[in-house]
Amino acid sequence: MQNLIAKELLSIGAVFLRPEEPFTGASGIQSPIYCDNRLTLSAPAVRNLVEAGLASLIQEHFPQCEALMGTSTAGIAHAAITATLLGLPMGYVRGEAKSHGRTNRIEGRLDPGTKVVVVEDLISTGGSVIDVVNALREAGAEVLGIVSIFTYGIQKGLDRLAAAEVVNYSLSNLDALVDVAVEQKYITPAQKQQILEFRNTL
Predict the structure, then answer these.
(1) Measuring CA to CA, how many Å separate 192 from each of 27, 93, 121, 199?
(2) Which of 55, 57, 108, 186 could cysteine-pair with 181, CB 3.0–4.6 Å?
C-alpha cells in the first residue's frame, strides 16, 4: 500500500521533488520536496484509493472508533468521505475558534467520551495535528489516534507524537516515495540520498 499510494501521488503531481531547486516553506526552510495531497480530491481514482486506504487503517487499528474528526482545512474532505464509507459521524477542528456565532472551534456533534480518530492529510513536524488532538481532549473526547495520507517521518514529529501519547498510521511515507521515485526515474539514487539527508537533519 505504501508504494502504491506513493506511485499514485507522483502520477498526479501531488508530490514535487526538486533537490536542485528547493521549495521555500512557510517557515523559511528550503525543502527539496513539496507535497500537496489536496490534488487527490481532483483525481477520482486516486481519491477512491486514498479514502478506502484510510477506512482500512481505521478498521484495522481503531475498530472501536465512534467518530472521525478532520483537521482544518486539508483533512476535512478526507474525513467526510472516509466517514461515509464507514457509516460514522464526522466533524472537524478549526485552527482557532470562530469569532462570531457560537464561537465554535470544533464543528459537528462531539459528546464527552466519544472515541475519535483524527484524519490528517500530511504530517511533518506534527505541531498542527497535536494541537487538534489537544483541542479534542479538552472537549472531553477520547482520541484513539491519527490516520494520515503521508508522513515525512521527521524525528521531531515522531518525538512530538510520542510525547502527546498519540499514534499515527500513514498510508505512505517519504522513504517509500523516494524508492518509487528512483524506480520510475523521477530522481536519481544520489538525489534520493540528498532528500533523505535533508529529512534527517530536521
Answers:
(1) 23, 35, 23, 11
(2) 186
30-31/106-107 β-pairing:
unpaired
Classify residue 58 by its DSSP letter: H
CB of 153 within 8 A of CB of 106? Answer: no
- Cell representation of residue 70: 478532520
Buried b (16+ CB within 10 A) or exposed e, 61-84: ebeebbbbbbbbebbbbbbbbbbe
Q: Please state whether beta strands 168-173 and 142-151 pair in parallel, antiparallel, or not at all (unpaired).
A: parallel
The DSSP code sequence of 73-102 is: TTTHHHHHHHHHHHT--EEEE-SS--SSTT
What's the confidence (pLDDT) of residue 29?
Answer: 73
Q: What is the pLDDT of residue 9?
A: 97
- For 33-40, what is the mean pLDDT? 93
Q: What value, to the nearest 5°, has the Cα angle with vertex 192 and ends 190 and 196?
A: 120
CA angle 95, 52, 91 (to 5 degrees): 30
